Amino acid sequence: MQGNNLNKDWTLIDGLQYSNWSHEIFSQMHEGGLNAVHVTVAYHENTRETLSRLGQWNQRFETFSDLIRPVFQPQDIALAKNEGRVGIILGAQNCSPIEDEIQLVGVLRRLGLMIMQLTYNNQSLLGTGCYESEDNGITRFGKQVIHEMNRVGMVIDMSHSAERSTLEAIEYSEQPVIISHANPSEFHPALRNKSNKVIDAIAENEGLLGFSLYPFHLKNGPACSLNDFCDMVAWTAERMGVERIGIGSDLCQNQPKSVLEWMRNGRWSKQMDYGEGSASDSGWPEPLAWFKDNRDFPKVAEALAQKGFNETELGLILGGNWVNLLTRVATASFETTTLDAPDKC
Amino acid sequence: MQGNNLNKDWTLIDGLQYSNWSHEIFSQMHEGGLNAVHVTVAYHENTRETLSRLGQWNQRFETFSDLIRPVFQPQDIALAKNEGRVGIILGAQNCSPIEDEIQLVGVLRRLGLMIMQLTYNNQSLLGTGCYESEDNGITRFGKQVIHEMNRVGMVIDMSHSAERSTLEAIEYSEQPVIISHANPSEFHPALRNKSNKVIDAIAENEGLLGFSLYPFHLKNGPACSLNDFCDMVAWTAERMGVERIGIGSDLCQNQPKSVLEWMRNGRWSKQMDYGEGSASDSGWPEPLAWFKDNRDFPKVAEALAQKGFNETELGLILGGNWVNLLTRVATASFETTTLDAPDKC
Q: What pLDDT does B335 receive?
């Protein structure tokens, strides 16, 4: 079911989605030619709630076993591709799942949590989020957690973090750090987008920037043209290197407004916080005309090809760089075990 | 460091311990010739607290990596033996770790929880404990959990359950059920010990009974002789078959009285509950003269040999039956994954 213009040697990966998961959406991933998707397990969920989310994923892995499979190790992405299933990479957009306990990093990594953001918009126990007015950098606990994430093979994601905290995380981490879903501020100056200083540090650190297709992160919002998006990709490839970029669409499909409000407000605010929106524009943004769901990936690939990227470069941008980054950073080294058994969840 | 009289072809397993874990105790396991020990992770701990307990075990696997290793699959016991380390089999003495959520069975199995009791003395959400005056059998949720434990490869342990609940668990389970640590009531009529009806059902079900060395479960308590213990083993071997019995010492070494009180009272009672003890005998029982710690296993092996068990039978009783039971029942079948990596926790 791969889109026609996609090279079968490519491994297509979307570096962030949080949709209202269903047979329809998983089928659309197949239609769009995707081999793996990084999905969000938690925004503000604490440890106990995160386990319920992981339990829900186990249920989906059972129910939709013909369409998806879990990715516990980066190498499982290749298994997914060979099996004709979409690999699901589990991640958290916040450090709420580990609460205040260093040992929970390893516990959650064993449960498959491969990527974790240190902050989500606000100050966390680890660092400062991108919507705070002051940024005092990585905390004492944050330094411990960065070291532990490095040790157990959990990727540090600074998508929703403030600048100083991001730069310090890169400095303290012995492994590359990523921005799974954001765009260069140079292209569109949203609080969530990243300064040249940050993207240069990510590049030097051999990390990865996943381009967001969330309209609030794009020039002209929902009216952003595919050509403008591709210009941004070309500019960033030039600045960071073509090995340092990927896609992190931030696709949030079929989600009710209540989910948007949970993402923005969690349990921390009595007043409504509108994130990149406003009181007069408080809902989900209108989708882009050229990217409505997973079936539109071939369209993006086609436009990037027309922009001048060759087959090799396209393969890297559309997923190869994600595979390489995860293989370098997220290969968990547990005690040896015989934990690979027949095909059941 | 194996005890002198132990056959090197045997795999020695103790089917239950809950000690105040330390370098000293893990070293004594080596001195006693043990290859694996089933340790208790939770008595009354809820899901969140259980994760902290598992985190503490991860810390021990790091700190004492020369002495112990985790057992995620039954086959890891052979790895442990080959490496010269003691395999740690993780289990819960209660269903408190899954709270009221069916999906947590699979989540905890992935974290290595291989054995779970359905009840601990009291009524639980799944069934009735051995100290209740009435036993209404396995609950609606209990039936679901039994099925799910069968599915994901988690062993059902009825050591602290009441008779009807135990018999129903055996009836509903598609897999053998175990009593990890208790003795036949015929030998000593403690509430915690098991009627002939129960041990016959376990035998027919091809499960396993692990003999307890906890003085309250033995004839004459702390004064029980090694010869009497061996007579009980011989009687049970005759009744159940030599393939259906093992050791589950219930060794609780160096634990303060506060831990005993936690085991007995958890958070459920304002009055002190004394378990097998009494107000005038409220502490830990005196240890047996011939079984004080892990170094005494060769002594037990020697006495059983003198009782007439041959080398093959001894190998089964001292661990072989545990290996066989776990291999049949606890081989978790997850989605295929590449989750076996270098030697790190």
A: 61
CA–CA distance, B152 with B145 (Å, rounded to integer): 10
Residue A109 token pair: 């990594």
- Kindly give the residue spans of alpha helices, DSSP state H, lying in chain B: 23-31, 47-63, 76-83, 104-110, 140-152, 163-172, 196-204, 226-240, 257-265, 297-306, 311-315, 321-329
| Least CB–CB distance from A340: residue in B54, B107, B340 | B340
Residues 6 or more apart whose CB falls under 8 angstroms from that of B213 comprise: B229, B247, B249, B250, B251, B288, B291
Supply the pLDDT for residue B334.
Answer: 63
Percent of chain B with pLDDT over 70: 95
Residue A55 contacts B where some CB pair is shorter than 8 Å: yes
Q: What are the start-end ranges of the E strands in chain A? A: 13-17, 36-42, 68-70, 86-92, 113-117, 155-157, 178-179, 208-211, 245-247
Give the mutation candidate from A60, A88, A338, A343 for the B interface (greatest B CB count, under 10 A).
A338
pTM value is 0.93
Tens-digit pLDDT profile for residues A90-101: 999 999 999 999
- Of the candidates A212, A211, A97, A199, the one whose C-alpha atom is nearest the C-alpha of residue A149 is A97
Q: What is the pLDDT of residue B183?
A: 98
Tokens linked to B89:
């089999």
Amino acid at B262: W
Report the alpha-carbon distance of residue A26 to residue A84 in Å, rounded. 12
Of A61, A103, A338, the CB nearest to B73: A338
CB contact under 8 A, B107 and A111: yes
pLDDT, tens digit (0-9, with 9 covering 90-100), for A240-254: 999 999 999 999 999
What is the pLDDT at residue A276? 83
Backbone phi, then psi, for B185, in 5-degree steps?
-60, -30
Instruction: Tell me if chain A has a CB within 8 Å of the CB of B284.
Output: no
Cα–Cα distance measured from residue A142 to residue A139, given in angstroms and rounded to the nearest whole number: 5
Question: Which residues of chain B have a CB within 8 Å of the CB of A61?
Answer: 335
Q: Judge whether residue B221 has pLDDT over 50.
A: yes
Q: What share of chain A is helix, strand, coil (3-state, %, to 5)?
A: 40, 15, 45
Residue B302's CB: how many other CB atoms inside 10 A? 17
**Domains of chain A: residue spans and CATH:** 13-329 (3.20.20.140)
B66 touches chain A (CB under 8 A): no
**pLDDT, tens digit, for every residue of B192-205?**
999 999 999 999 99
Average pLDDT, chain B: 94
